[in-house]
Amino acid sequence: MVLNILKKLQFRRDVPAEISSSGEVTVMHVSDTPESVYPFVQRLIEKISPDYIIHTGDLADNLKLERRPELLPRYRGAIRKLASILKGSGAELYIVPGNEDDVEVIREFFGDAVVDPGTVVEIEGVRFALGHRPEEVLGSPVDFRLYGHNFKLIEKGLNGVLGVNFVLLPSGRTYRIKYPPGTDTCRGYKMWRGL
């Protein structure tokens, strides 16, 4: 029942016109995505056509491999679906493994797009630190720190658990579009941690 409600609600998020009409290079950042938000992510990609997509880990966050390794076959199927969406976008991809991910499976589907936590990339002269956990992106002199894993906020940080982030370049303007209602429930969170 929760998934049926999510399917009805997940397409009601509005995309700010500034993102799709800016004429700037667009970086899309997601993290900790349960399978239930894959259609939502796909819709955003179709509406915005980002130039770069960065996923900072826990690609199928409803499947907790760290605690339930027997879910690996189901996880592989989920990663296949997400890879089809992300690779089909035509965007340049960066994928950071999270604590709930299987690195071998991610490499199987994403190949050279997989980068280590703490990697710094430069896009249009702007430096991004990429990690799954906040502590993996601290310490590097960068313009933006992209991460997920929990609800912490850090300096120059964009937390992909809180919503889908967009960075427009070269202006550096940022936008966040919240995930559909119920996303945290699908992630297995009963309440916002730390609040």
UniProtKB/TrEMBL annotation:
InterPro entries: Calcineurin-like_PHP (IPR004843), Metallo-depent_PP-like (IPR029052). It comes from the Archaea. One of its GO terms (molecular function) is hydrolase activity. This is Metallophosphoesterase. Pfam families: Metallophos. Residues 26-107 form the Calcineurin-like phosphoesterase domain.
